[in-house]
Design brief:
The chain has a single domain (11-281), classed as Vaccinia Virus protein VP39 (Rossmann fold). It is 44% helix and 18% strand. It has helices at residues 11-19, 21-27, 44-58, 76-85, 96-104, 146-156, 176-189, 198-207, 219-222, 224-239, 241-247, 257-269, and strands at residues 66-70, 88-93, 115-118, 131-137, 157-170, 211-217, 273-281. It has a seven-stranded mixed β-sheet with strand order 3-2-1-4-5-7-6, sandwiched between helices. Helix 10 crosses helix 11 (241-247). The longest helix has 16 residues, at 224-239. It starts with 10 loop residues before the first helix and ends with a strand. 45% of the residues are buried.
Length: 284
């Protein structure tokens, strides 16, 4: 697993998203995850919804199910699932800004509002065998003790239920150059506890007592996300003094986010980084 050189501090994750709150929503929107560009000409909204739809289908979600969204961000996926699938959702985030935003949004059609918890997944205090499905869209790389992360998912999932995880992964054998200049800085700047390969993630999942049904590489279909983000940030820097003030303020702990966007796009381009779509079942 690739880990940041600096000491990983769990509190830094929430602080990262809190400090970059307005930029994340301006640059990409309330869905703080990749878009799935299957045709290539989708809008950002179409692409982000396509990814959520793929997650829902893989998780075999049905109306009335209770879903746990691990690392729910602004609650965009939770609200989409509630409105379009007729399910109840409990989401968890470490970001106070994200939780506050999510808790002020509403769903349509009288569906119960998602329950958004400001809570660490490793201290989630949720009941055993409770959820019909668990989803984790790009959240696991932020968490230490990866085997324990998946063990908690196994614990709260009903027997026979599915876990669908979209995971930031490394290639199986990244070169020293890509580790030094791309993967390690991405972990450090993005406040990731570390990135593992597909085989490492499979091992952690299976050690938690779960059965991996499939691992799909969606890298080609999601990489355009970072091209769009980089262009939008560039426009923001050129046209908006607020962007420039943030980037040149040495007191800002996360002011290197623009550089990280470029690293991410390059990491996909050279194959050092992969986007894994993992479908898992809890044995009955």
């Amino acid at each position: 697993m690739i880990v940041p050189r600096s000491e990983f501090v769990g509190d830094a994750i929430g602080e990262h998203y809190d400090e970059l709150d307005e930029f994340y929503r301006e640059v990409w929107g309330e869905h703080v995850h990749h878009g799935l560009f299957e045709r290539g000409d989708e809008s950002v909204e179409e692409a982000t919804e396509a990814l959520i739809r793929k997650v829902a289908e893989a998780a075999q979600i049905n109306a009335g199910d209770h879903i746990c969204d691990v690392g729910c961000g602004y609650g965009g996926a939770a609200r989409w699932l509630a409105e379009n699938m007729g399910v109840r959702v409990t989401g968890l985030t470490l970001s106070e800004a994200q939780a506050t935003y999510a808790q002020t949004q509403s769903v349509q059609n009288g569906i119960p509002e998602p329950v958004i918890l400001l809570r660490d997944w490793l201290e989630n205090d949720l009941p055993d065998n409770h959820f019909d499905a668990v989803i984790a869209i790009e959240s696991t790389a932020h968490m230490p003790e990866r085997r324990r992360v998946f063990s908690e998912m196994a614990r709260v999932l009903k027997p026979g239920g599915r876990l669908v995880a979209c995971i930031w992964m490394t290639s199986e054998e990244p070169t020293p150059r890509t580790v030094k200049h791309l993967l390690e800085p991405i972990c450090r700047e993005g406040r990731l506890a570390g990135m593992g390969s597909a085989s490492e993630n499979r091992a952690w999942i299976e050690a938690a007592g779960l059965t991996v049904e499939s691992v799909e590489d969606l890298s080609r279909s999601v990489a355009r996300t970072w091209t769009i983000c980089a262009k939008r940030v560039t426009v923001g820097i050129l046209r908006n003094s607020r962007y420039r003030s943030f980037l040149f303020d040495s007191s800002r702990q996360n002011r290197g986010f623009a550089r990280t966007l470029l690293r991410l796009r390059l990491a996909y381009a050279v194959g050092a980084m992969k986007y894994g779509f993992v479908v898992v079942r809890k044995p009955i």
